[in-house]
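Notes from the 1:1 (GR / supervisor)

We went over the backlog. Supervisor wanted to see one worked example end to end before approving the batch request, so GR pasted a single chain during the call. The sequence is below; no edits were made to it. Supervisor asked that the structure be written out right there so they could see what the output format looks like.
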Amino acid sequence: MLQVYYRIVVSAWKTFGFGAIFWRWALFMPMFIAFTHFTLFLDRIFFPQFRKIQVKNPIFIIGHPRSGNTFLHQLLTQTDEFVAFQTWHILFPSLAARVLVKPIVEYLIKKNKSSLIPDQVGHGVSLDKVEEEELLFFHKLDTQFVWARSPLGFDDQEYPEFRFHDLQLPSRRRNSINFFKGCLQRQIYYTGKQQVILQTLQSVHRIKTILKAFPDAKFIYLVRSPYETIPSHLSVLWFLLDLQRRG
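Structure output shown during the call:
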C-alpha cells in the first residue's frame, strides 16, 4: 500500500507540480487514512459485536464496466431488503466514524449538496445513493479505481497489480480481503440485514481471493457487446480524469 501511495504522490508532482492536487494527496490523504484506521480500531472497543457476525452466501456482481452492473445492483437493492452501501458508508466504513460524520452528511443531503460526481460524467455519485462496493478497496489502494481517481491516471506506466489481484503477494491479498470482510461485517451489523449483494465489477481477477474468504459466494457476470462497453467506459474515464484535472 505504501508503495502505491508513493507512486501516486510522485505522479501528482510530475503531472500537477506543487499545487492543490499534490497537497491533497501528500497531506489530506494520509490524514484521512489515519482517521479511518483509528476509527476502525475504535469499533473493536465500542462495537465488538460486529466481529461475531458471519457473512453468509454473499453475491458478487462482476464484469466489464458499462455492462449494466450498476443498473442491476440498484434494481436489486432498491427494495431495501439487502445489505448495500451508500456512498458515505463506503467513505466511512467505521461504525465509530459514522457516529461522528452522520450529522454532517444529513446536513449536506438536506441542503442538496450531496453530489460528489455529476451525472453528466456517466456515473453520478451522491452521498446518499447506493454505490459499488468495489470502492471499499480504495481504502487499501487496491482497486482499478485508484488508477481512475488518482494522478496515476495521467502516468504512462503500467500497473498490472490493479488488475490481476490474484497474482499479488499472499500478504497483500489477505490484507485487502480481510479489510473488505470486516467492512461487510460492520454493514450487516449496521443495517440489521443478512443477505449481501455487492457490486465489485472490477474484481474479476480477484475471484480466487474472494472464494478463499467466502467459499459460499455466488457470482453474477453480465455480458454486453464490447462495441458498446469499450467506448462507453473510455468516455467515463476521460470525464473522470478531466474532472480530476480541473480539481
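Supervisor's comment: The first helix runs from residue 2 to 16.
Batch request approved.
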